[in-house]
Design a protein that fits this description.
- With 101 residues, the protein is an all-alpha fold.
- It is 72% helix and 0% strand.
- It is built from five helices and no strands.
- Helix 3 crosses helix 5.
Amino acid sequence: MLIHSRAATAPLIAESRKTCVDEVVRTRDYLAHFTDELKRRAATPGRRLALTVALSYVVRDCLLGEMGSPPDIRKALFEGSQGYLFAVHEGMKEWSKTQER
């Protein structure tokens, strides 16, 4: 699977790939249909930001990997980015809040 080969962005989805994907799908459903039931299950605004940033780095990681960039270079590139650090640290805080619901 593509995600398994992308060690540089593993911390972004480390909590649980299935939970992360399910959360993105539930949020997408809410943003498409705007029902009260979907709103309760969707990510909070802070979590949506963290998910968006995290997914942007996962896509970048995949593209750079497909172009032949070594994992250690990609990881060093991402770890030097404030956006990546936000997604890892702030995103994990937001994710833990959603697990309390």
